[in-house]
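Exam revision sheet. Question 4 asks you to relate a sequence to its structure. Input first:
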Amino acid sequence: MAKYLFEASYTADGVKGLVAKGGTSRRSAVQAAVKSVGGKMEAFYFAFGGHDAIVIADLPDNTAAAGLALNIAATGTVDIHTVVLLTADEVDAATKQDVKYRPPGK
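Answer key, structure tokens:
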């Protein structure tokens, strides 16, 4: 499974829902959504700053991650940003790729 970081920012309607139902309700809802696409939620945190909630999840693939993010965003209550997370071993493997690339102007 691949690991993803989701950064969520609530809209005004999202904040109203959070206030009405509480934080644990949101965590449970996200956990169920992650599970519904074949994944496992590793962490869920509320945050101050640029984003209201941070979720780390293991998901089967990019299709599952995109489906999750699209369906959450479609509610209009959350703006979501998805980041693919790489392990150190994956970065090591990436640096060993024999990439044939010509920079601009060369």
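Marking note for examiners. The chain has one domain: 2-95.
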